[in-house]
Amino acid sequence: MVLAQLGGSISRALQQMSNATVIDEKVLNECLNEISRALLQSDVQFRMVRDMQSNIKKIVNLDDLAAGHNKRRIIQQAVFNELCKMLDPGKPSFTPKKGKTSVIMFVGLQGSGKTTTCTKYAYYHQKKGWKPALVCADTFRAGAFDQLKQNATKAKIPFYGSYMESDPVKIAAEGVERFKKENCDLIIVDTSGRHKQEAALFEEMRQVSEATKPDLVIFVMDSSIGQAAFDQAQAFKQSVAVGAVIITKMDGHAKGGGALSAVAATKSPVIFIGTGEHMDEFEIFDVKPFVSRLLGMGDWSGFMDKIHEVVPTDQQPELLQKLSEGTFTLRLMYEQFQNIMKMGPIGQVFSMLPGFSAELMPKGHEKESQAKIKRYMTMMDSMTNAELDSTNPKLMTESRIIRIARGSGRTVRDVMEMIEEYKRLAKIWSKMKGLKIPKKGDMSALSRSMNAQHMSKALPPQMLKQIGGMGGLQSLMKQMGSNKDMASMFGGLGGLGESMVSRLR
Ligand SMILES: Nc1nc2c(ncn2[C@@H]2O[C@H](COP(=O)(O)OP(=O)(O)OP(=O)(O)O)[C@@H](O)[C@H]2O)c(=O)[nH]1
């Protein structure tokens, strides 16, 4: 089952249960069985699903449900907590420190995306001011060194490897030694893979690890390997001290459940996920936003991270300020379009922002979307400053529309379509009004600014009703313990609403 479908199946199971007039053990069991089926189809390991089911039964009090409390909310909350628990091994992984040399060894089967991920990891840190270096200790796959060399050159990251030397242990040790001397603070060792788990591979991993003494061993796993995830992760953990996991190819037909199994098998956290073949398609992994997404709830914090990453630094304060004011002018739309055209990855920002993704930039239709954006921009070029800076759509009278169409060589219909698009986005953005936008890494500012009043405004009416109105929302926030959890759980505000509502229809 594809990741996105899992949330839908769980929502449906919860909905069916809430529709029942009396919630007794039988109804609850049916609901939990339905949820378990969905998790199993998502490749979560059987034992974990079974444990989760019995944990939820212990937590959920049938008397509470019978007393008319919001059943759906109580169970959803329990499912959310249990999934978070599964993904949180309880201790963070080793975190390298900028300016202090750390050796990071990558292990994984052939084709898992290890080499690509090594470069993504190096590039991610390089952008943040680190001095990374790559060592290719994969002498098994012909072409591995060329691939790493190509990637490293593109990203301007120093690399070490050899076409002649066949001993991976020797190369790894030499490479690490060289980059230590060059004062690199992040020395990344890419190792060999095999098509399947075999003794020779694990012996090689043991030897490379012994020679390089890594501060952290990262296990790289393809998200689509299904139920095999647990055994594969465990096999690596038994030969080397795996301390963190990176799950790749989460963009494709990803089965998110594998991530849960890998965490359980290695008792190590997932630290990043790969979301595409490009260097910057790489995201920090946070448990709560991930589970929110898994349950179809959007990802507000991911959106904030992306803004910080791709919007030019000098534009950030202004954009964030405007976001919090809830004012969305045609000029702001124009500027964001400019960003989209300048830098590919900004599409990722808008894919997390409610409204921008599906209609404006559907996946797989990027070319058409770009053409559409260019068309919109040409029309906006024919607008006056007053028109661009206005927040009042009524300003766009018939005569102005005709003038813009003539000026840009487009039809009146084209201009109206663009204005409709603007109105649609402005409506969504207005929901952010008053929200304090956190500085990088400071989600607490966001949480402080979130209160039930805000939340109720941002949520679509159907969703609010599901939660049990203002009262239900307030008690849910109280129950969540902290607004921070709430912020991540409720993810992309309107985005949450949209995806939930479409599922509930
Ligand atoms: N869609 C997608 N493709 C990815 C991702 N990560 C890696 N790939 C692709 O997966 C394929 C295999 O990646 P490699 O990095 O060559 O795999 P590897 O595990 O290093 O292979 P060995 O060096 O033989 O062990 C390549 O075509 C990558 O572009 C990802 O996050 N998403």
Automatic annotation (TrEMBL):
It is found in: Cytoplasm; Endoplasmic reticulum. It catalyses: GTP + H2O = GDP + phosphate + H(+). Signal peptide: none annotated. Residues 269-282 form the SRP54-type proteins GTP-binding domain. InterPro entries: AAA+_ATPase (IPR003593), P-loop_NTPase (IPR027417), Signal_recog_part_SRP54_M_sf (IPR036891), Signal_recog_particl_SRP54_hlx (IPR013822), Signal_recog_particle_SRP54_M (IPR004125), SRP/SRP_N (IPR036225), SRP54 (IPR022941), SRP54_euk (IPR006325). Belongs to the GTP-binding SRP family. SRP54 subfamily. The NG domain, also named G domain, is a special guanosine triphosphatase (GTPase) domain, which binds GTP and forms a guanosine 5'-triphosphate (GTP)-dependent complex with a homologous NG domain in the SRP receptor subunit SRPRA. The two NG domains undergo cooperative rearrangements upon their assembly, which culminate in the reciprocal activation of the GTPase activity of one another. SRP receptor compaction upon binding with cargo-loaded SRP and GTPase rearrangement drive SRP-mediated cotranslational protein translocation into the ER. Component of the signal recognition particle (SRP) complex, a ribonucleoprotein complex that mediates the cotranslational targeting of secretory and membrane proteins to the endoplasmic reticulum (ER). As part of the SRP complex, associates with the SRP receptor (SR) component SRPRA to target secretory proteins to the endoplasmic reticulum membrane. Binds to the signal sequence of presecretory proteins when they emerge from the ribosomes. Displays basal GTPase activity, and stimulates reciprocal GTPase activation of the SR subunit SRPRA. Component of a signal recognition particle (SRP) complex that consists of a 7SL RNA molecule of 300 nucleotides and six protein subunits: SRP72, SRP68, SRP54, SRP19, SRP14 and SRP9. This is Signal recognition particle 54 kDa protein.
